[in-house]
Automatic annotation (TrEMBL):
One of its GO terms (biological process) is proteolysis. Pfam families: Peptidase_S41, Peptidase_S41_N. It comes from the Eukaryota. Gene3D superfamilies: 2-enoyl-CoA Hydratase, Chain A, domain 1, 3.30.750.44. SMART domains: TSPc. Keywords: Signal. This is Retinol-binding protein 3-like. Residues 108-305, 406-602, 703-900, 994-1190 form the Tail specific protease domain. The lineage of its organism: Eukaryota, Metazoa, Chordata, Craniata, Vertebrata. GO terms for molecular function: retinol binding; serine-type peptidase activity. Residues 1-23 form the signal peptide. The keyword Signal applies. The keyword NADP does not apply.
Length: 1211
């Protein structure tokens, strides 16, 4: 499509490419430009073109081209490149004679019939597939003339086919007006569909094309399959049909990309020359895509040589005709066999609502069905795939083998199936490669007991080798699991739900076992491989789930044999459906996917690794107990430490540590258990297999030569604009180090910052260090007296509580307690840096900006667990807030202003700059209020009190905070909710609606009604400006006022009237007074000018008056505000109306907006108040009704009052 605005390249090629001896060249280019401006269908791309051309002509830069055809070619390249539209061409044809083909509607009927018969071909192919070829899309007028012929010979015949191939491969001409009929034929009558928008540039009109609610003949509808064939020759209206049907998802396109024609192209002579420009004068925009088929063509769904399109379409229709049966077949199989019966209705509903429009092959259908089912079920066992093989029914073989009762035979069978050995270290070894049927196991019970359990009863550990176990009966797993548990306790192992049998079977500990049980205390080690499958991997999974064994080897195969596969009807698609659910002891259904061992090793190395893990497991209990003992001695929270110790031992007893296979996995498991139980992420167990250095070395005191290096490394300082100090240090040094470097630190760092007005302390990269220097650092930011309590430290090792205070004496000058401090934090800010930050925040000495800190420890000890290579990092001190008395270390420090760490410095500077403006803003605010607030005495009082409250603005951190607090203070000091900060919203541009639009607006803005006893009702929710109302007064009178003016009483409903301008109040009040006497309605005092304006009724009005004699009731609510209150106040004061409802809002006359100094803060200040000579003002207090009732009851109350009045008058 054409795109992009006018390019300078066009200027160069249009204006410099002129031949220089003739005087007409500039006119040629300007004429061509005018043609483009008047006719090109993308006028928005030509903005500024004519002016640019004229400027280039005036510059005199001319490239001489003497050959006119060459010039035409050059101009073509230029205009196409500039507007990115290949349809634009310039040609030199001095002898060109335009030939206009006759319009179809003007042809005789007989000729039209021959034309249609030659351009339409209809056949019914095998399987009732319709074939319709149309080589020219006839327009609306022609179709109307030939309607019965087309209906009887084409459309009604096509309607009876089961599916249709619509061949547009040879359609190279046609009219766009015929497109809506064709699209309508393949659509339903309702709802109507917007199918295209056509813009015609010469007429500057836009026409929308929609489907038709009624057509001649029977519709094909939108449910039967439709294939549209296209070729490189398909052009124009046929492209519009194909493009629309494709994007409505009504048809699949088969063939080649179409030509990419145009809605309408014209060849226009350029002035009086022999040059012509061919130009697209109309364009199409599809409402679905926002794009068009023009230039780019229609891309097919199936890209194939046009000659092969019919055969391919027939194959595609065969595939698509199978879709409904395939969906039904899949639905039936799932309904009958799928083991999650509760999910079946959702599956079927999802399949029913799925759009299969994009399916163009059997492979697409298989993939689509599989993806849809997977997205809903998330069950990897439920699979649909395409296969050329015959489907395989996967079933379990539950039939017992033919086994005789001969003891010798039974012993030989057990010897063959089970391999039992005693390995080194008194470790038992058991291998079997299939789980037998339960009935078989029952027959072999005595032999198994003798062969296996008698032989293994005295071993210390047991290795069960499942590396070659390919499955068998899941039910028999219960027998083996029972031998591996304590017979005195009842355990639930697993549950099997069989969808086909509709049975649920629970497997628990079996009683009366033949042979001695192995019990639950000794170690069991399961060996697995990639071949371990079905019941073999289910057993491995259960041993993990029950915490009864340690898995060693390879990830199992992930092959569950609880599924059936079925061929989907009339396709090569196979669906595999699980019909059994295997549910573990936790109630979770295992969906397969392979079991991951605790120790992943090669299958052939599994036995050796099992021996290593057995040896390691002998240490685990002592390591778990040692961890608990260290916690009880050192962890800062004793009650939690005791709990942790008990939890670790309980988890060991329950088998939770059978999954650990080395020091690394044990450390990880212990850490997870400790952090989960305590909620303290600072507890860590780690392993270190090299000799550790002393973990509690005293800090080294630096030499004189090292001091300068340390200061340069640790401290970064800067005095920023505005005399703002910046101090960054990335580690908390020990107090002894600080004392040693103190003089140099004060000279090189502190002396440069102490006289700044504000300081930013950057802790974003400070990960901690020593806490001993925190009191010293804090002291610099407080006064000498009184000493401040910073925080309290509880030390678990010594069981002492120490209050940490500021220091009475320090080297150098203090920063003091009055200047602002900002501390920047990040998630890296840790331990001692967090303590410093929290202390400064708790004491309101600093504002914290940045990210929440992670929550570290003031002090953590590292302790070796026994003589092992495991170590425990345990917080041994608790920091308690001096303000709340609570510990915060685990949760960290939450900033006052939370932003990304990288933005913290910029935000701090922005806050500092804002705070620097606050004194001037407060002063300017006070002056504005004193000089302009409607009530002079109140304004002066507010200004005085606001100046005294400047210290309360120290915590402001944003313009929003400032505006919020300033508004709250102004309203509190004045008692006026209308005195507040505001936004300087620019006024809306004036509207100039037509009279018709005015009438519609008035109908929406005003509501009138007529009640019993000729009681009128008038509601409007805002007062308009007098000048605006005056201009439309006649319209308001005609469409609103005349409906109520002749009533015997009137209810004016202002319950939802929020105010507006007061300039029209006098005029509206005047309608309720008589014309023969002017009434002084109110006196308005204007504070800025110090003048009082009298508000009188008007002598002349548009329309009739209501007068002063008829009853008037005004309804009010708490929402009634501003100008509406002034009207109510006047009418009540003069006794002209009865007020019914609630006390009004207590707002003010319309406030004025003032800018506060040079800032971006604006004030809304009421500058006018009503006359207070006869009583208190309504501003701020509201107008009290004569009859107070809830707002929602006011109308009924008013009607009741008036009806009663009229009823009494009739007696």
């Amino acid at each position: 499509m054409a795109g992009g605005r006018f390019s300078p390249a066009l200027l160069v090629l249009l204006c410099h490419v002129l031949f220089g001896s003739s005087s007409f060249q500039p006119a040629l280019v300007l004429d061509m430009a005018k043609i483009l401006l008047d006719n090109y269908c993308f006028p928005e791309n030509l903005v500024g073109m004519q002016e640019a051309i004229q400027q280039a002509i005036n510059s005199g830069e001319i490239l001489k081209i003497s050959d006119r055809k060459t010039l035409a070619s050059v101009l073509t390249v230029g205009v196409q490149g500039a507007l990115n539209d290949p349809r634009l061409t310039v040609s030199f044809e001095p002898n060109f004679v335009p030939v206009m083909p006759p319009a179809l509607p003007s042809l005789p009927t007989e000729q039209l019939i021959r034309l249609v018969r030659n351009s339409v071909k209809l056949e019914v192919l095998e399987n009732n597939v319709g074939y319709l070829r149309i080589d020219q899309i006839i327009g609306e007028e022609t179709a109307a003339r030939l309607g019965p012929l087309l209906r009887d010979n084409v459309w009604n015949k096509v309607a009876n086919t089961s599916s249709l191939i619509f061949d547009l491969r040879y359609s190279t001409a046609g009219e766009l007006s015929g497109v809506p009929f064709i699209i309508s034929y393949f659509s339903d009558p309702e709802p109507l569909i917007h199918i295209d928008t056509v813009f015609d540039r010469p007429s500057n009109t836009t026409k929308e094309l929609w489907t038709m609610s009624s057509i001649m003949g029977e519709r094909y509808g939108k449910r039967k399959d439709l294939i549209v064939l296209t070729s490189k020759r398909t052009m124009g209206a046929a492209e519009a049909v194909a493009y629309t049907l494709k994007h409505l998802k009504r048809a699949n396109i088969v063939g080649e990309r179409s030509a990419g024609g145009s809605v309408k192209v014209e060849k226009i002579r350029i002035g009086d020359s022999g040059f012509y420009i061919t130009i697209p004068v109309a364009r199409s925009v599809n409402p679905i895509t926002g794009q068009s088929w023009e230039v780019s063509g229609v891309s097919p769904s199936v890209n194939i040589n046009a000659k092969e399109a019919v055969a391919n379409a027939q194959n595609l229709l065969a595939v698509r005709s199978a879709i409904p049966r395939a969906i039904q077949s899949v639905s039936d199989i799932i309904r009958q066999y799928y083991s999650f019966t509760d999910r079946v209705p959702a599956f079927l509903q999802h399949l029913e609502s799925t759009d299969f429009f994009s399916v163009i092959s059997e492979e697409d259908l298989a993939n689509k069905l599989n993806n849809e089912l997977q997205s809903v079920s998330e069950d990897p066992r439920l699979m649909i795939k395409l296969t050329q093989d015959h489907p395989i029914i996967i079933e379990e073989d539950f039939e017992p083998e033919n086994i005789t009762g001969d003891p010798a035979f039974l012993r030989n069978l057990v010897d063959t199936v089970f391999k039992v050995r005693i390995l080194t270290g008194n470790t038992g070894y058991l291998r079997f490669d299939k789980f037998g049927d339960v009935s078989v196991m029952a027959k072999l019970g005595e032999q198994i007991a003798q062969k296996i359990w008698e032989a293994l009863k005295d071993t210390e550990n047991l290795i069960i080798d499942l590396r070659y176990n390919t499955g068998g009966s899941s039910a028999s797993m219960g027998i083996l699991l029972s031998f591996l548990q304590d017979p005195s306790q009842q355990f639930h192992f697993f549950t099997i739900y069989d969808r086909i049998q509709n049975t649920t079977t629970e497997f628990n500990t079996l009683s009366g076992l033949l042979g001695p049980p192995y019990g639950s205390k000794r170690g069991v080690y399961i060996l697995t491989s990639h071949y371990t499958a079905s019941a073999g991997e289910e057993f491995a999974y259960l041993m993990q789930s029950l915490h009864r064994g340690t898995l060693i080897g390879e990830i199992t195969s992930g092959t569950l044999m609880h599924s059936k596969s079925f061929q989907v009807e009339d396709t090569n698609i196979v669906i595999t459906v699980p019909f059994i659910n295997f549910i573990d002891n936790n109630g979770e259904c295992w969906l397969g996917g392979g079991v991951v061992p605790d120790a992943i090793v090669l299958a052939e190395e599994a036995v050796d690794h099992a021996h290593e893990i057995i040896e390691f497991h002998k240490e685990v209990l002592s390591l778990v107990e040692g961890t608990g003992e260290l916690l009880e001695v050192h962890y800062a929270i004793p009650e939690v430490a005791n709990k942790l110790s008990r939890v670790l031992l309980t988890k060991w007893a329950e088998g939770s540590y059978r999954s650990v296979v080395d020091y690394e996995s044990l450390a990880s498991q212990l850490t997870a258990d400790l952090q989960e139980t305590s909620g303290d992420h600072r507890l860590h167990i780690f392993y270190c297999d090299i000799e550790t250095e002393s973990l509690h070395d005293m800090p080294k005191i630096p030499t004189a030569q090292e001091v300068g290096y340390i200061i340069d490394t640790l401290f970064k300082i800067e005095v920023m604009p505005g005399n703002v100090g910046y101090l960054r240090f990335d580690m908390m040094a020990d107090i002894e180090v600080m004392r040693a470097i103190g003089p140099q630190l004060i000279k090189l760092v502190w002396s440069k910052l102490v006289n700044t007005d504000t300081m930013i302390i950057d802790m974003r990269y400070n990960t901690g260090g020593y806490s001993t220097a925190i009191p010293l650092l804090c002291t610099y930011f407080f006064d000498a007296e009184p000493l401040r309590h910073l925080y309290t430290v509880f030390d678990r090792s010594t069981t002492t509580m120490t209050e940490v205070m500021t220091l009475p004496q320090i080297q150098g000058q203090r920063y003091g307690s009055t200047k602002d401090i900002y501390i920047l934090t990040s998630q890296m800010t840790g331990s001692a840096a967090e303590v410093f930050t929290r202390a400064m925040k708790d004491l309101n000495r600093a504002k914290v900006i940045g990210e929440p800190t992670i929550g570290g420890s003031l002090s953590s000890g590292t302790y070796q667990i026994g003589n092992s290579i495991l170590y425990a990092s345990i917080p041994n001190q608790v920091v308690l807030s001096a303000v709340t008395g609570k510990s915060w270390e685990v949760t960290g420090v939450t900033p006052d202003v939370e932003v990304d760490a990288e933005d913290a410095l910029a935000v701090a500077i922005k806050i500092i700059n804002l705070r620097a403006e606050i004194p001037a803003i407060l002063e300017a605010t006070g002056a504005l209020v004193a000089d302009n607030y409607a009530f002079e005495n109140v304004g002066a009082d507010v200004a005085e009190k606001l100046a005294a409250a400047s210290g309360d603005y120290n915590l402001i951190s944003s313009k929003v905070d400032l505006e919020t607090k300033l508004s709250a203070d102004l309203m509190k000091l004045s008692g006026d909710k209308c005195l507040k900060t505001t936004h300087n919203t620019p006024p809306l541009p004036p509207m100039n609606p037509s009279p018709e639009m005015f009438i519609e607006l008035i109908k929406v803005s005003f509501h009138t009604d007529l009640f019993e006893n000729n009681i009128g009702y008038l509601r409007f929710d805002m007062f308009g400006n007098f000048e605006e109302v005056q201009a439309i007064a006649q319209i308001i009178v005609e469409h609103v006022w005349n409906k109520v003016v002749n009533t015997d009483a009137l209810i004016v409903d202002l319950r939802n009237n929020v105010g507006g301008a007061t300039t029209a109040i006098a005029g509206f009040c005047s309608y309720f007074f008589d014309a023969d006497k002017q009434v002084l309605l109110d006196k308005l005092y204007d504070r800025p000018s110090g003048t009082t304006k009298e508000l009188w009724t008007l002598p002349e009005l548009t329309g009739a008056r209501y007068g002063s004699k008829k009853s008037l009731i005004i309804l009010t609510s708490r929402a009634t505000a501003g100008a509406a209150e002034e009207f109510v106040y006047i009418m009540k004061k003069h006794g002209r109306a009865m007020i019914v409802g609630e006390t009004t809002n207590g707002a003010s006359h319309p406030a004025e907006t003032f800018r506060v100094g040079d800032s971006d803060v604006f004030l809304s200040i009421p500058t006018t108040h009503s006359d207070t000579a006869q009583g208190p003002a309504w501003e701020g207090a509201g107008v009290t009704p004569h009859i107070p009732v809830p707002a929602d009851a006011a109308l009924d109350t008013a009607k009741g009052i008036l009806n009663k009045h009229f009823a009494g008058a009739k007696k």
